[in-house]
Amino acid sequence: MKLLVQRALNASVVVDNETVGAISHGQLVLVGIEKGDTEADMQRLADKLLKYRMFGDKDGKMNLNVQQVNGGVLLVSQFTLAADTKKGLRPGFSTAAIPEEAERLFNDFVSKVRAQYDQVETGRFAADMKVSFTNDGPVTFMLE
Which residues constitute the domain of residue 121? Predict the structure, then answer.
């Protein structure tokens, strides 16, 4: 499992001209599910995501997590994060989980994050999503 976590001033997901998820500030999280990922992986990364200190304190140091700054979390499924890009000029997706398993695990991940924090929005799994955001910093981390 891979999480591309971006500190955002705002973020939203639109599907068929309808906003399905939006936050004013916090984390935009692109979620890639890979073959072999487990529910234990979902729990470990849910815990890490919410505790990850990527927001500035009064001295400007990254010492605060999303909960401490009362930020939102926007979770968006992104199967291309699981791409194999080591060879050639075209990504391979043999490392990505099959769609049914990826959807189950993504929903499990969302549930685990929501169980710990109530300011969680999502995109729509497997939809053609238009994601807009303003990266704050820019600050971007890959959590695995």
Answer: 2-138
